[in-house]
Design brief:
Structural class of chain B: mainly alpha
CATH class of the largest domain in chain B: Mainly Alpha
CATH architecture of the largest domain in chain A: Orthogonal Bundle
Helix content of chain A: over 70%
Order of helices and strands of chain A: HHHHHHHHHHHHHHHHEEH
CATH topology of the largest domain in chain B: MetI-like fold
Number of strands of chain A: 2
Largest sheet of chain B: 2 strands, antiparallel
Number of domains of chain A: 3
Order of helices and strands of chain B: HHEEHHEHHEHHHHHHHHHHH
Number of strands of chain B: 4
Oligomer: heterodimer
CATH class of the largest domain in chain A: Mainly Alpha
Helix content of chain B: over 70%
Strand order of the largest sheet of chain A: 1-2
Strand content of chain A: under 5%
Shape of chain A: globular
């Protein structure tokens, strides 16, 4: 109740807010960002028929609390384990620090001060996670914006010719030619095709086809592409570098970004941009000052989402890195040593790597919630 | 309303903007081509390369490697050769009712296919061919799944992956939906729960695997008294028996990904127009019919998209089994991705690529099934 009353009392009439408000149709991509109508204050009837009876209310709280316990219990166990000695862990379960075991910070001390790889892995995780997500966001946002505002009509034949050119390049390289020659041959083939047979076919693709193709790349199992990428990066001498990981993560996550953002840009009314253009704003100005502010909640949620993927990724990292560019998940797995799993160290590592993201999610949740209130102005 | 990303309806046509942006080729190139090129070079080209690897034998030789084209040998090895027991599983001693189940399924599918062909004027041949392909693939999958899961059968990595996907996604969806419906009520502190429930999604999957290894540990884990009560002094452990190990993995996956379903379903529930529910309530509809006849039909498009997305991601499952059980006992919890990874570690690159292609094929097939048949039927039934 209080939320929407508050908002309608404000004069929320900046361009940004109106934009976000007008686009709050119940779209499902937008539903992810919580931009739908808010549950609070939904009823206009004097006697609210959606209010719960006391008994139903108690039941609802019981369900929510039960699931909270399921969510929190493993995490509680991890936190206590991080303060245990190996003996505490191995001699059967103990539950409460200070009651049935003495808490110690040995594991924390070991991981932070003695284990030489911790700092490096943590820095790698942060750099790879943040940089790759920012790049993904830039690429994904411009592609989704383009797909929602411009009309793309590439000939199917040109696309086929381009792919055939790549196939020619790969085939000649496999057959033993130098790869530079292969690329030249591929380009020549592509140019020749465009000039000759590809002109005859009129069939063109639409924006939806392009979007579908881009998004469907997410179906690709990473294991199917990571092996060739290993060979590529080996040829470029980029194995075990952060660059290789960042590039690969951008490629893997861009489909998600487009999937999430396409809806968002499609929902921002065009007339805002037209008005800005009439007022003499240049295209970059329009994009920067009109479109981006209206898309902030979507961008924030998308960033958080893809960063979680890049931050936690294990398979690609384990193939493409070995020492210098190792990320935290690999260090966690490394604690499963020949002496058996080092539970206490592992718990510390998982806590260290999860905390920043949890804090960020908490902080951004508020940010996203503001978008949600803006969306509620209309309803 | 974008029902699914694969859906082509719902977005206003891009051509409405023609007046403002029509001939802006510079913007066009700048906006889209970096992404398209990146995806081509990081997905399409490696995929072509993998395709070649899948059809060849890869060997390290002095000073480099050599790749020999061997045709479909790698796939043959998986389906009928030395890898058959690991990949397809063991199909022995199938009881009569399992055969009956398979027959019933295939018959029902065949009848539905015939009906679908009859109903479609115009594209009869196309529909018939498509339906035949779908029927053949589902029949093979069901045949292998039923025979390897009954009697003396032992499921291979293909069926184990399917079990992970279907069990896990179903559990996550229903839990997420239930929680979303409860959390959408007018309760104080909803936002606290919402934030809290997001935490498992943020923990790295590798970490979730270790968490569940701790929790399911029957001698040192926190639930040890409980296990002792349930199993007495037997040396039962979750990860040393095939089905308990698989269930542990499904539970870990559910713990981690129910939040995803929950968050989006909650937002969807909250964005529903309240008038319908209010009207139903005023008319005296019980809670169940309110949900089943009013709320749920409106949630179907979102639900199908969610199930689609989660299934696609679940097919790639690898970190959980690798860490939680190491794929064991034996290969009881080995997913296709994990098998491919192990083959790659064993420098059998051809076999690994072949497995990756099988996984890609199955994932695409299931995704298309969800998109085409799931939605069509749901739309027919509820609108």
């Amino acid at each position: 109740m209080s939320e929407s009353t508050q908002i309608s009392a404000d004069p929320p009439k900046t361009v940004t807010e109106t934009a976000a408000a007008t686009e709050a149709q119940p779209g499902w991509g937008r539903a992810l960002f919580g931009l739908g109508r808010n549950g609070g204050g939904r009823s206009r009837l004097a006697h609210d028929p959606l209010a719960l009876s006391p008994r139903a209310r108690a039941g609802a709280y019981a369900v929510l609390v039960a699931w909270s316990l399921i969510v929190l219990f493993p995490i509680y166990w991890m936190i206590t384990t991080s303060f245990k000695t190996p003996l505490d862990v191995n001699s059967g379960p103990v539950y409460l620090p200070g009651v049935d075991f003495e808490g110690t910070t040995e594991a924390w001390d070991y991981i932070i001060n003695e284990e030489p790889q911790t700092t490096r892995a943590f820095v790698n995780t942060v750099v790879v996670g943040v940089v790759s997500s920012l790049l993904t966001l830039v690429l994904g946002a411009s592609a989704s914006y383009g797909l929602s505002r411009l009309e793309f009509r590439p000939r199917l034949a040109s696309v086929v010719a381009f792919l055939a050119g790549i196939a020619v390049a790969v085939a000649t390289t496999i057959a033993g030619l130098a790869w530079q020659m292969g690329i030249l041959l591929g380009l020549a083939f592509f140019a020749a095709s465009i000039a000759t047979w590809a002109r005859r076919f009129e069939f063109r693709l639409s924006n939806d086809d392009i979007a579908f193709w881009l998004i469907s790349q997410r179906i690709l199992p990473p294991i199917a592409v990571v092996l060739p990428l290993y060979v590529f990066f080996q040829q470029l001498q980029l194995l075990d570098t952060r660059t290789a990981l960042i590039v690969t993560y951008v490629g893997a996550n861009v489909p998600i970004a487009i999937w999430l953002l396409r809806d968002f840009f499609a929902g921002i009314p065009v007339h805002l941009e037209e008005a800005a253009a009439i007022d003499g704003a240049t295209r970059p100005q329009t994009f920067w000052f009109v479109v981006l502010p209206a898309a902030v909640p979507g961008l924030v949620a998308t960033f958080l989402f893809i960063m979680v993927f890049a931050w936690n990724e294990f398979l690609i990292a384990s193939v493409l890195t070995s020492a210098d560019a190792q990320t935290m998940p690999m260090l966690v797995v490394a604690q499963n040593a020949t002496r058996g799993p080092q539970w206490w160290n592992m718990s510390v590592l998982i806590l260290i790597m999860s905390l920043p993201v949890i804090l960020m999610a908490g902080f951004l949740e508020r940010f996203i919630a503001r978008g949600l209130l803006v969306g509620a102005v209309k309803g | 309303m974008a029902e699914t990303d694969i859906d082509k309806t719902g977005h206003e046509p891009a051509s409405r903007d023609v007046e403002l942006f029509a001939h802006d080729t510079a913007s066009k190139r700048l906006l889209l081509s970096p992404t398209v090129l990146l995806v081509i070079f990081l997905s399409v080209v490696p995929l072509l390369f993998s395709g070649y690897l899948a059809l060849s034998r890869f060997r390290f030789v002095r000073g480099g490697f050599e790749v020999n084209f061997i045709g479909f040998d790698n796939f043959e090895k998986l389906l009928v050769g030395s890898q058959q027991r690991r990949f397809v599983g063991n199909l022995e001693q199938t009881p009569w009712w399992a055969w009956a189940l398979i027959a019933l399924f295939v018959a029902a599918q065949a009848v539905m296919a015939v009906q679908a062909v009859r109903r479609s004027p115009g594209h009869r041949v196309r529909t018939a061919v498509l339906r035949m392909v779908v029927l053949a693939v589902t029949a093979v999958l069901v045949y292998v799944a039923v025979r390897s899961l009954t009697g003396e059968g032992i499921p291979g990595t293909l069926v184990v992956t399917l079990v992970f996907v279907f069990l896990g996604v179903a559990l996550q969806y229903f839990l997420g939906l239930g929680l979303a419906l409860v959390a959408a009520q007018q309760l104080r502190g909803r936002r606290l729960f919402r934030t809290l429930y997001l935490i498992p999604m943020i923990v790295t999957p590798v970490g979730a695997a270790f968490l569940f290894r701790m929790v399911t540990d029957t001698s040192k884990g926190p639930l040890e008294p409980l296990w002792k009560l349930a199993f007495g002094d037997s040396d039962f452990t979750w990860v040393n028996e095939p089905w308990p190990a698989r269930i542990a993995i499904v539970l870990a996956d559910t713990w981690q990904w129910t939040p995803f379903m929950f968050v989006i379903l909650l937002a969807a529930v909250e964005s529903l127009p309240p008038e319908l529910t209010e009207a139903a309530k005023v008319d005296g509809a019980r809670a169940w019919s309110q949900f089943w006849l009013v709320t749920f039909p409106q949630l179907i498009p979102v639900s199908l998209t969610l199930v689609l997305i989660r299934s696609i991601e679940a097919f790639k499952i690898v970190d959980l089994p690798q860490v939680l059980t190491g794929g064991g006992p034996g290969t009881a919890t080995e997913s296709l991705s994990l098998q491919a990874l192990l083959e790659w570690r064993a420098v059998n690159l051809g076999g690994s690529a072949a497995l990756a292609y099988v996984l890609l094929f199955v994932t695409t097939f299931v995704a298309l099934l969800i998109v085409n048949y799931g939605r069509r039927r749901a739309v027919a039934r509820f609108t």
